[in-house]
Design a protein that fits this description.
The structure holds two protein chains of two kinds.
Chain A (H helix, E strand, L loop, with lengths): L3 E5 L2 E4 H9 L3 E3 L1 E4 L2 H13 L4 E5 L4 H6 L10 E3 L8 H8 L7 E5 L7 E5 L1 H4 L14 E3 L6 H12 L4 E3 L5 H10 L4 E3 L2 H5 L12 E5 L5 H10 L4 E8 L3 E6 L4 E2 L8 E4 L2 E5 L11 E2 L2 E12 L5 E7 L4 E3 L2 E3 L1 H9 L4 E11 L3 E10 L4 H7 L10 E4 L14
Chain B lengths: L1 H14 L22 H15 L12 H9 L1
The chains are: A alpha/beta, B mainly alpha.
Chain lengths: ~400, ~70
């Protein structure tokens, strides 16, 4: 197994290295809070091989965010010594995946009510969109997501189960991305719209066979740019969430429900409803007769011969910032912890780079924008980039802040 | 124009704890020389739009100070 598994800068890990690293671990962690992508993958695969459940925490969570998510700082560093299973080959790894009794993976997502949601997926649930076949044997994946988020996990399993290499593109600058895509002959990329928007217009990547994006409505203008950048690639817009994983894909704006999910996804009052059987487990999901109201509002464009629909917007107030979901209430609460800020209103404003840029109107005295920003103990994408100082902030009739 | 842009860029840098820039040059790369990430670039678009009423990223990405100035002069 000298095939490459992971490439990041000059660090290269083959599948053989992965096996050696797996065999070298003699403990287990319930909580994985790692910033280095390879280590995240290593611990996920170790948990699968040794069949124990894990919780993924973002490597850049502040201690405050860990506590706000309902964990204690002591519990997340708890290590338990174990005798790891000895793995001799890639087939050994795959065999372990077929005999899981205890394994599950819990991911966190911002809840709409301000309480973060924990979503637990089984192996079947998290890999339901993964395609394994000979046609994928030569794929080389550009890895462009946070490794602890659902989209990143999807790419990991798609690459791993086909024994493909992944090349790290996450948080790289465009010049490096261009060099890496060409150097390693990357054939498949899944990334946020922001990732593609940052690539210069005067370049193309004819060797790329498939690109995927999601999380936003793709405009015609943007799709035309993608076609110029990737002239030979199939362009897929994916509908996925932490709650349900990847559910369906479209080549344009029009989505349709795949036959296998025919009875498990329906549209009611223009909202997508997902049956419980397609969801991970969570105490934080509200179900109505086994159906989860996704909050995604669509418009039906065709009914015959099959139902085709396109996305309009979201029912709830989550803001998509560069592919990350931000709950404005969480940010408002953090802002108001500063006693110099008496009122705050957080909202998204359309932006050509990020989709939405996070803005905050605040009522405050004796504090600078810099101090406000540096005082927020939040992940970078949750920090408002435009802060407007106001005399007062309007409330809606129900007493909620108006966004 | 260059001076106004320098002030905008320096303000963005200062808010994230970086030193303001005393000078910017047309050949400066927004990422490598100015030190901007995608969030800073997004912020730059907002301030340029407010100051010059131009969406500098409307037709795709610009990578250098010179390219930003070209957009502002268009």
């Amino acid at each position: 197994m000298n095939n490459l598994f992971w490439i990041d800068h000059d660090e290269k890990k083959t599948y053989h290295d992965l096996i050696n690293d797996l065999n070298g671990i003699n403990f287990r962690w319930r909580y994985i809070r790692e910033s280095v992508a390879y280590k995240v993958f290593l611990f996920i695969i170790h948990s699968l091989v040794n069949d124990y459940p894990i919780v993924l925490l973002d490597g850049d969570f502040s201690d405050d965010e860990i506590i706000n998510n309902g964990f204690s700082l002591e519990e997340i560093i708890n290590k338990e010594n174990i005798h790891s299973k000895t793995i001799n080959s890639f087939d050994d790894i795959k065999k372990c995946f077929n005999n899981l009794n205890n394994w599950s993976i819990t991911l966190l997502t911002s809840g709409t009510t301000g309480i973060p949601k924990k979503i637990t997926h089984s192996y079947q649930s998290i890999t339901k969109a993964v395609k394994v076949s000979d046609t994928h044997r030569e794929d080389t994946w550009g890895f462009a997501y946070n490794p602890t988020h659902m989209a990143g996990i999807q790419v990991l399993f798609q690459a791993l189960l086909n024994a493909n290499p992944m090349v790290n593109l996450f948080r790289k600058d465009p010049k490096t991305i261009i060099r890496i895509i060409n150097k390693y002959g990357i054939s498949h990329i899944s990334a946020t719209p922001t990732f593609y928007r940052l690539l210069p217009a005067n370049i193309d990547f004819p060797q790329v066979k498939q690109i995927s994006s999601g999380g936003e409505k793709l405009s015609e203008n943007f799709k035309n740019r993608l076609k110029k950048l990737f002239p030979n690639a199939r362009i897929r817009n994916i509908y996925a969430s932490t709650e349900a994983g990847s559910l369906f894909a479209s080549e344009g704006e029009g989505f349709y429900i795949p036959t296998k999910f025919k009875d498990k996804i329906r549209i009611e009052d223009n909202e997508i409803l997902i049956h419980q059987s397609l969801l991970g487990n969570s105490d934080h999901l509200t179900l109505n007769d086994n159906w989860y109201h996704s909050g995604d509002i669509v418009q039906i464009t065709e009914t015959e011969p099959r139902l085709v629909f396109r996305f309009i917007n979201r029912k709830n107030e989550m803001i998509n910032v560069g592919g990350y979901k931000v709950n404005p209430e969480e940010i408002e609460e953090e802002l108001l912890k500063n006693h110099k800020i008496s009122a705050a209103r957080v909202y998204g404003k359309p932006n050509p780079i990020l989709g939405n840029i996070l803005c905050a109107d605040i009522v405050a005295q004796g504090i600078s924008e810099r101090d406000i920003r540096s005082g927020l103990k939040l992940q970078n994408f949750k920090i408002p980039r435009i802060i407007n100082f106001k005399d007062k902030i309007d409330l809606t009739r129900t007493g909620k802040t108006k966004r | 124009m260059l001076e106004k842009l320098r002030v905008i860029i320096s303000n963005i840098r200062e808010k994230k704890g970086d030193a303001p820039l005393e000078k910017i040059r047309e050949e400066d790369d927004l990422r490598n020389d100015i030190g901007f990430d995608s969030f800073d670039l997004a912020e730059l678009t907002v301030h340029c739009e407010a100051e010059f009423n131009v969406d500098i990223f409307e037709d795709g990405i610009v990578t250098s100070i010179g390219e930003v100035l070209d957009k502002l002069h268009e």
